[in-house]
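Recall the central idea of this unit: under ordinary conditions, the amino acid sequence of a chain determines the structure it adopts. In this exercise we apply that idea directly, starting from the sequence alone.
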Amino acid sequence: MANYHFIGIKGSGMSALAQMLHDLGHNVQGEDIETHLFTQTALDARHISIYPFGEGPLVLPDLTVIVSNAFTDDHPAVARCRQAGYAIERYHHFLGQWMREYTSIAITGSHGKTTTTGMMAHTLGAVKQVSSLIGDGTGKGSAGAELFIFESCEYKRHFLAYRPEIAVITNIDFDHPDYFADIQDVRSAFEEMASQVGRQLIVCGDDPQVRQLQTSKKLLKYGFMEHNDLRASEPEVAEGGVAFEVHWRDSKLGRFVIPTFGRHNVLNALAVIGTALLLDLDLERIRESIATFAGVKRRFTEKQWKGNVLIDDYAHHPSEITATLEAVRSKYPEKRVVGVFQPHTFSRVEKLMDDFAVSLRAADDVFLCPIFGSAREVFGSVSIEQLKAQIPNAQLISECNVADLSGYENSVLVFMGAGDIQKYQVLLEQL
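Accordingly, the structure predicted from this sequence is:
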């Protein structure tokens, strides 16, 4: 049993790691802002102590301090622990060392990491004991687990701290323009990551950037296209989700059903099935388990409201918006689709302005919220008005005029963003 103190324990990755270590019998505590975040619900359920910054007791023996990547080395909470003489480790460095005791499965890619990680942990967990870290703030530790399934983030090349046995690459796209220079820079980061994988890569062969990867590692390619080793065909909306046929090289694996919508989720399911094949797991149990995947937090989370459907989704990149709206259309083909979007970071809006406009035009109506900055990017050179100008009939919305959304009937209102877009939905529900 070890003792851990988390600085920034409410972060999605930090919360998940704290939960997992607690489940494995370790003493865990942490500090963060006092505002309640959805990521702390699971911490509270485990009775993990959370203190305001600067107030956590540092009295446990042999205490290891784990620091969120959101905080710099000169943050007062970090300085306090350093002055107290405790060992300090960054989240990704700690995780890179810790996972060496397992057969580790990394899920990475520009989009779809969290849903694929959640689907992987749920499905494989029905066949074998697993420990897992999911990017929606969900962690689970299982004593005796052989498999460790985790979300692996490419931002600032943090995933280079890991040496997984198996890695899934869902796609490669230009994102995080505050760090990556261009798509070639992004792809080179994934190539460096791929070189560190111990056993095999499971990659989406439909993705054009993935197909350009230069790697000597063995590949299992999945997708809809004929050149892939593992293929899906004949997708159709059925049984509260999507049903599709699966082909493994020259063999037919039969029909699979997932209780989620959109072609992107079929691709996510193929990544899971491909991993199961690689690990030689019971395919019938995999088929049964994947059909019961309930989804992850803030990914196509639905509720009914006054005859409408409200959807909360983390989509914050043009490709993700396109995938989310396509999934909405497939599930609700007869309903009006209303996109409520809060851009996340000024640099992303500046670099991807045209792509954002194209993706949002897929909605029947569009409401744009003020740009959500970040701790590293409080302001920028672009405005929400510039994006509005590229989208016909788009409207601006703020906390003051959320009532403008209350006139819809029999519609789907899709709240999208990685900031605090949920507050607009909460205000609407209170009307």
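The chain has a mean pLDDT of 94.
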